[in-house]
Amino acid sequence: MDVKRITTLNAPTPAGHYSQATVYNGLVFVAGQLAIDPATGAHKTGTIEEQTEQALNNVHAILQAAGSDWSRVLKMTVYVADMNLWDAVNKVYGRILGENRPARAIIPTGKLHHGFLIEIDAVAATDQKGTGSVSISSAINADSSAINTDSSAINTDSSAINAASSAINADSSAINADSSAINTD
User: Fold this and answer.
1) For the chain, is the Cβ count within 10 Å smaller at the N or the C terminus?
2) Which domains does the chain have, with CATH numbers?
3) 138 — pLDDT class (breaks 50, 70, 90)
4) What are the residues whose beta carbons fall under 8 Å from the beta carbon of 3, sequence distance 6 or more?
5) Closest CA to 14 of 22, 2, 4
6) pLDDT classification of 175: cutoffs 50, 70, 90
7) Distance CA 30, CA 121 (A)
């Protein structure tokens, strides 16, 4: 079974040699997500609440791109710069995940790079099995298939028109032959 690489424009573009997520055998492994706005690339280094919400939004966008969601998350790992921030992180985490309660590990890391206070990764179930790559090119390929289908229909219609045209030409030849016979008499 192949490993499928997940790419979505709804989460930050990887800054290093890694994928936003990989899918293998019905599981999606989401790479650690920071508080980066995917639309602008801006580092959101404000409050821990803002950073937690953005990091979770990025995880969720990748889960969705992989055919999963919060209800299918099996385990989350939360890396936090300071354990004194935990109460605030847990409140945002609980609000966003709601009734979903995956297994979780909290790892105090000390200072994270670029001034971030939190990073979150996840493992979740998905119906995808891991046979290729899911990305924006999948949408382009789907549109291409629709265009090819439409093109086939046009070619079929064109063949029908050509057949009708041939029949008209045959009828026209018969009329001309009859007309010649009349003129000879």
Assistant:
1) C
2) 4-134 (3.30.1330.40)
3) very low
4) 22, 23, 24, 130
5) 22
6) very low
7) 6
The vertex-77 CA angle with 67 and 18, nearest 5°, equals 60
Instruction: List residues bridging with 106 in a β-sheet.
Output: 78
Which amino acid would we find at residue 123? V
Residue 31 is inside which H or E element, if any? strand 27-33
Q: Report the Cα 54 to chain-centroid distance in Å.
A: 18
What string of H, E and C letters represents the secondary structure of 92-156?
A: HHHHHHCCCCCEEEEEECCCCHHHCCEEEEEEEECCCCCCCEECHHHHHHHHHHHHHHHHHHHHH
pLDDT digits (tens, 9 = 90+) for 47-66: 999 999 999 999 999 999 99
Flag whether pLDDT at 159 surpasses 80.
Answer: no
CB 96 within 8 A of CB 53: yes
- Output phi, psi for 12, to 5 deg: -60, 140
Return the residue matching tokens 């055998």. 25
